[in-house]
Design brief:
A hairpin with a 7-residue loop joins strand 20 and strand 21 (about 345-350). Helix content is about 15%, strand content about 40%. The protein has a five-stranded mixed beta sheet, with no helix packed on it. The protein has a five-stranded mixed beta sheet with strand order 18-22-21-20-19. A four-stranded antiparallel beta sheet has the order 2-25-24-23. The chain is globular, with a radius of gyration of 22 Å. The protein is mainly beta.
């Protein structure tokens, strides 16, 4: 009997030591801070009118909330106008067309008619559509829609005792580099075994999906936009990738010619961040687009100015989208009351080093917006011409175009 108690005591002691060790690891898990750059108080001269929409976007596609192997008509929703339910846009633009189309967009159905339902998470699946005018969109011939079906209850685990078991996808983002699309998105409350079953059989997945994590960033690739590889794990919300169970919100990826850079929003819900802001944006790097910096090797992005804080002291970045073109990094930032898990205003920030960003003081949109995107269309030695998909919390997308001058950007960033 004494021996039995001794064994139990040893087990409890080991568990206690392990718990303390993990706790200390969490306390010491900080991203690297960037030395702040002083504000030179130079604003973009003669800021172009980037506030005018060219029109409202119509996407002729069905939102499918069925589990794999199911085809229940009840979970298939028409989200074309007037039942719009669009969210999380990201666009790649090809001036000469790609497979017959200039605009390629990935998004997730969510807001609007879909977003008013209790089971809206079932529809938040990566969906690909194409266009030649930026306003009228359809799925490309041959692509499966959605690209990834809703996780079933057996593939999911519950966040808490109140909510049902319903994993979901969200926050899609993609790049096009070296002749291929790289599509990234976030899986939440999906079992590691389920991700393994849906994914490619690789050492990468075995290494990263050995246990459940609340959130997992995954990637699929394609050379034609139609046929896609099985998913691969990129990083998870477990240490050492993140303070355990942080949200890894709206990760966005760019290829800068030398490697991959990712930006993501992390809520300030733990002692792992440098100040009292409600959220921070961290930057990771990767040589292959699959293995990114651990949290300790990532860097906290510095904003030289924060115009959203002048509007409302509770505002901070909630969702973001990153773009890289001609040596410039851009962040399209949906800022709002992060503690209420939402955004309201939309801002545009720019940088030469991808670490120190200056923000246009005038918001792209002041109210009711969510994760939106900008994308380069054409460039010259002097200017960058952008398109933008502005996403509203009503589930509506609008399209606009604007131009920025490189010299004026440089003047704003000059030390």
């Amino acid at each position: 009997m004494l021996i039995h108690i001794g064994k139990k005591s040893i087990v409890l002691l080991l568990l206690t030591i392990f718990s303390i060790s993990c706790s200390r690891q969490e306390e010491s898990l900080y991203a690297e801070n960037v030395d702040p750059v002083p504000n030179n108080n130079k604003d973009y001269k003669d800021l172009p009118d980037y506030l005018t929409d060219k029109g409202t976007i119509s996407i002729n596609v069905l939102a499918n909330g069925n589990y794999p192997g199911q085809n229940n008509p009840f979970y298939i929703k028409d989200i074309n106008a007037p039942n719009v339910g669009y969210c999380h846009p990201d666009v790649q633009y090809f001036p000469n067309g790609f497979n017959g189309y200039k605009y390629w967009m990935v998004f997730t159905p969510y807001f609007g008619t879909v977003g008013t339902q209790q089971d809206s998470k079932r529809y938040e699946n990566p969906t690909i559509v194409v266009s030649n005018d930026g306003l009228n969109w359809n799925p490309p011939n041959g692509v499966s829609s959605p690209l990834q079906k809703t996780p079933s209850a057996r593939e999911s685990f519950a966040e808490n005792k109140q909510d049902p078991k319903q994993g979901f996808w969200s926050d899609v983002d993609w790049t096009y580099e070296n002749g291929k699309f790289s599509l990234y998105y976030r899986g939440s409350f999906i079992r590691a075994a389920a991700l393994m079953n849906r994914g490619i059989k690789s050492q990468n997945n075995i290494r990263k999906l050995f246990k459940n994590s609340q959130r997992t960033i995954v990637r699929q690739t394609s050379v034609d936009g139609i046929s896609w590889t099985p998913l691969e794990a990129v990083y998870t919300s477990n240490t050492p990738y993140s303070p355990k169970d942080n949200h890894m919100i709206s990760p966005s990826f760019v290829y800068n010619g030398n490697g991959y850079v990712s930006f993501e929003v992390e809520n300030n819900i733990s002692p792992n961040f440098p100040g009292n802001d409600a959220s921070y944006i961290i930057r990771r790097t990767s040589g292959n687009g699959l293995d990114f910096s651990y949290f300790k090797q990532s860097k906290v992005v510095n904003f030289i100015n924060k115009p959203w804080a002048q509007v409302n002291s509770t505002y901070a970045p909630w969702h973001i989208q990153a773009t890289y073109v001609d040596g410039y990094y851009f962040l399209c930032i949906a800022a709002g009351d992060v503690k209420k898990y939402t955004a309201d205003a939309l801002y545009l920030a720019f940088s030469k080093d991808g670490l120190n960003f200056k923000v246009f003081p005038k918001a792209l949109v002041e109210h009711n917006t969510y994760r939106s995107c900008i994308f380069p269309m054409t460039t010259t030695s002097e200017d960058i011409n952008f398109g933008a998909v502005i996403a509203y919390k009503t589930g509506v997308f609008k399209y606009r175009e604007f131009q920025l001058n490189k010299q004026k950007i440089d003047d704003c960033l000059a030390k």
